[in-house]
Amino acid sequence: MQGDTVYAVIDLETTGTERDSDRIIQFGCAVMQGGHIISTMSQMINPDRPVPAAIQQLTGIHPADLTAAPYFADVAAKIRDLIADTVIVAHNVNFDYPFLSHALTLAGQQPLTNPAVDTVELAQLLLPTQASYRLSDLTAALGITHDHPHRADSDAISTAKLLWRLRAVFQALPSATQRSLSRHGAFFAARHGALFE
Questions:
Q1: Cys staple from 155: which of 11, 23, 57, 90, with CB 3.0 to 4.6 Å?
Q2: Could you tell me the pTM of the whole model?
Q3: In which domain, by residue range, is 137 found?
Q4: For the segment 160-171, what is each residue's pLDDT rounded down to a tens digit?
């Protein structure tokens, strides 16, 4: 992970896990470069369908919060512009990346082709003795403030801080270990990019 790379650390809250039938209800993004968050975006999105009670309980997002929110198609171009030319990062990127890419496609945008990093896989690699790799557990273990778990904006910011903490763990490894991981980093890539550059 190079210091000059721009990372778009994203998190989605959705009505469920099925890309074809469920919809995004909140998009959160922290754009990070050189270890600093340089911009953020937090957007409630009207899914134009019911929000299951379990999702309301998990996220604290209720239908009344979404009534006046824009539809995804209304903000898709803004989101696409925000994450253009970045490495996308998410905690369990294999959910967020394809879900967002599908939503963008439905809204008439191009699907995502960005390289991507999964902080779950990265944490499993660099912190192999952790009891849990849930975001809230990792942030608690590492002393990272995480104010509102399961809210996309808070999760994105916490994941950005986690990414940089993991980068520091990598940099503290012996040089031979770093070289070995860098050579095999593509194995741990969630999409097109290697975790280690």
A1: 11
A2: 0.89
A3: 6-188
A4: 999 999 988 888
- Is residue 1, in this structure, part of any structural domain at all? no
Best CA proximity match to 47, nearest among 28, 61, 29: 61
Q: What CATH number does the domain containing 89 carry?
A: 3.30.420.10
Q: Would you say 146 and 140 are in contact if contact means Cβ atoms under 8 Å apart?
A: yes
Rounded CA gap, 117 and 79, in Å? 18
Token reading at 14: 């959705």
Alpha-carbon distances of 166 from 57, 103, 171, 180, rounded to whole Å: 30, 30, 9, 17
Whether residue 145 lies inside any domain: the answer is yes
Residue 161: what are its φ and ψ, rounded to 5°? Answer: -65, -40
Number of domains in the chain: 1
Helix/strand number for the chain, H first, E second:
8, 5
pLDDT at 172 over 60: yes
Identify whether 171 is part of a domain: yes
Q: How far apart are CA 54 and CA 140, in angstroms?
A: 24
**pLDDT band with cut points at 50, 70 and 90 for residue 107:** very high
User: What are 61-94's pLDDT values in tens digits?
Assistant: 999 999 999 999 999 999 999 999 999 999 999 9
